[in-house]
Amino acid sequence: MINKNKYALQARSIVKYYEDGNTRLDILKGIDLEVASGEMVAIIGASGSGKSTLLHTLGLLDVPTSGEVFINGAPTAGLSEKQRSRIRNESLGFVYQFHHLLPEFTALDNVAMPLIVRRMPRKQARAMAEEVLAKVGLADRTTHKPGQLSGGERQRVALARALVSNPVCVLADEPTGNLDRETAENMFSLLKSVNREFNTAFVIVTHDPKLADLADRQLVMEKGLLDSKTDIPV
User: Fold this and answer.
1) Which alpha helices (DSSP H) does the chain contain, by range?
2) H or E element: which one contains 169?
3) How many alpha carbons fall within 13 Å on the CB side of residue 224?
4) CATH class of 7-227
């Protein structure tokens, strides 16, 4: 998807809490965030600060108690789950700490899956998947299943799957958290090069300062609030 808007993703006054009887648990306490097209933003913070909940909300996997998320300039409040699913499929990409690849499918078909779900002809979907796999350095691993790949290779397949739809924004939750240092550093370089080549915005939740340092901006999450004052020169 070609992003013609200034912002790939916006969050306005996002509040999320859960109620259990007379008890209320506040997770997000009024989050405002704007991620420009092609920008890489890192969100750091302690466990339990609300980072993953925010990422799930930005990715339309969870619904805020109040506030609204805009994807590529379009509002998402009041959409049906089917409509939200379509936006996730066409406009967003997801990378997690654990790759969540389908073990019975090859790397090629794992990457093509978002397009196949969209009912794109399988031949066309595979051709697009093959092109993206080549861009992440896995042209010679297309027929391998996840169990035949290293941890770093599996994460690159997951990244290729996130990119195959040409999303306006990729949301990554600890994408290097399950990798050894050398493999993680290779992944750092790949994320940055992909960010530049595809002009895809990234929002990355991470505990790793080296990964955070690659971002255009570092944001700090603490007790459900986002501090946007820490900027990193590009």
Assistant:
1) 51-58, 81-91, 107-117, 122-135, 151-163, 181-198, 209-213
2) strand 169-173
3) 12
4) alpha beta
Distance of CA 13 to the CA centre of its chain: 21
For the record, the structure tokens of 7 come out as 């912002």
Residues 6 or more apart whose CB falls under 8 angstroms from that of 45 comprise 51, 220, 221, 222
Q: How many CB atoms lie within 10 A of CB 83?
A: 12
| Separation CA 161–CA 196 (nearest Å) | 17
Distance CA(75)–CA(73), nearest Å, equals: 7
- Ranges of each domain in the chain: 7-227
- What confidence tens digit (pLDDT) does each residue in 113-148 have? 999 988 899 999 999 999 999 988 889 999 999 999
Q: Cα separations (Å) of 125 from 48, 89, 129, 131?
A: 39, 14, 6, 10
Looking at the DSSP bridge assignments, the partners of residue 226 are: 221
Q: What is the pTM of this model?
A: 0.86
